Amino acid sequence: MCPIYKFPQINLYMSNFCCNFAAKLDNRRKKKPDNRINEEYNIQNILNLITMQKSPLQIARQAYQPKMPVALNGNVRLVEGAATQSVADQEEIKKLFPNTYGLPLITMEPAPGEAKSEAINVGVILSGGQAPGGHNVISGLFDGLKRLNPNSKLYGFLGGPSGLIEGKYQELTAEIIDEYRNTGGFDIIGSGRTKLEETWQFDNGIEICNKLGIKAIVIIGGDDSNTNACVLAEYYLQKQCGIQVIGCPKTIDGDLKNEMIETSFGFDTACKTYAELIGNIQRDANSAKKYWHFIRLMGRSASHIALECALQSQPNICLISEEVEAKNMTLNDIVEQIVEVIVDRSNAGLNFGTVLIPEGLIEFIPAMRVLIQELNDLLAQNEEFATLEGDDAKREYVKSMLTPASCALYRSLPKGIARQLTLERDPHGNVMVSLIETEKLLIEMVSKRLAQLKAEGKYKGKFSALNHFFGYEGRCAIPSNFDADYCYSIGVNASHLIAAGKTGYMSLVRNLTKPAAEWLAGGVPITMMMNMEKRNGKMKPVIQKALVELDGAPFKYFKEHRAVWADSKTSYIYPGPIQYYGPTEVCDQPTITLKLERGAM
Fold this sequence. Notes:
Layout (H helix, E strand, L loop, with lengths): L7 H23 L5 H16 L4 H7 L13 E8 L6 H7 L7 E7 L10 E7 L6 H15 L4 E5 L3 H6 L2 E3 L2 H5 L12 E2 L6 H14 L1 E8 L1 H17 L4 E6 L17 H22 L3 E6 L6 H10 L3 E2 L2 H6 L4 H17 L5 E6 L2 H4 L1 H14 L3 H5 L3 H11 L2 H9 L2 H6 L17 H18 L9 E6 L1 H4 L5 H19 L5 E6 L9 E6 L4 E6 L2 E6 L9 H14 L17 H4 L4 H6 L4
Parallel strand pairs: 3-4, 3-6, 3-7, 7-8, 8-13, 9-11, 9-12, 10-11
Antiparallel strand pairs: 1-2, 2-14, 4-5, 13-14, 15-16
């Protein structure tokens, strides 16, 4: 079953690995399962590990030892700071979270003696989309708990938050954890997008936790998932059920950050992965000299990924959604901006280039946002629309129901894009922006405008375009050294917050532009990051998203240099593959965004 490698040390590793897991499987099969679903998952998980074929890089990467802040390498003491308040809507947030509002900031400091605590059972949940480093958060949490007390146990809830309310779980043993260290993906226990909002869900969770003796839950997720963590922590305190809740900051989009959270994990790896691909495309464009590449990048609510990839690869054009909104730009304005660069480069004999487009761009165009909102309201639970057959009938129905301005815009769109705007909605009833192929829309509109200019004698070049969407390519990449270190530290830090009895906190690691040993660990109350926003027509407490700041250092740097990147002097950077081994200045660097924000460039 095991692959044969040319390397003796790898053969030995795989031989021992298979023998150990075969014995483990035999022992498990002799046991009487107390939960058929969980036992089947146990057995399948072990079978997967036994038969798993691994590349030399995978095996070598498992041996990587993450670096940590000095404070987390031994015993710690928690130092509490001043009381906190939410970033906005203080009175409303305080009323909704009377037990977790106003908690102090926490800093971890080295302490004498050995790190010890009472044995505790902890549950962990992966929530939302995948992000590189999630497995290392779980590894750090496991190691931290076992170091504090070897008798502590870690349970993974399967398939995201639904695993908690449906009682689907897996005890995470050392054998399982060791197979996922420094790996990408969320496949150790799976993830999901179930929202924890209903009282019956909370009560089901209490019942499952009591059954397993779980006294703390760690939720690894983005802003919505950590908002759920805060709601859960508040409910468990009200019920006095003795279950703590700790959050961890995850999202490749980079929009979960603030004065305390410097970056969410996964952003670093995803941007480096996308930047490598962009660099490869730019090298090809500079070689073939005949294609314009329109590249859409993940990031619905903010343009952090597009901006960081631009800083790393220096494309000819990068659109920033927040700037489009601030300048009240129309779709035609954006097209004219792109066309101007294409014509200028063509006049210099360069009929090629790259354009980076944030996934959520279309929602930041003011007129498009109005149209999308009208469509959201029109199509929400619209039985009449659902009964219509054929795209033409649906298109005519929509046009008849829109306001004149939105109807005119809708009619101007290519039929394919117009259709995508009326497709299936997300759980909030909104347009699924990831399904809208903005890059194809821009290619079509740019092509038409260039044809007009050619007819007028104002453009003599050739325009051939290719479209790309980089999304899933980066979400489960093997984590960079930065994310491997950062995530492991977040997990270990979470174990100390649990041991100290804290709840309603997010695991905090800061000072990230310094070497890992100088990072600062602690905890930030989740309520400190919250404000009130309208969701599904109702005002709800949520963690405030961080958009690209147009007066911030990263955007200012981009703005100062983009004209040079656009002109006839090709200024491409080719970042190459993520580097795992080599000099520190190559392997362990954080994103350019983070360095600029912290004044480290």
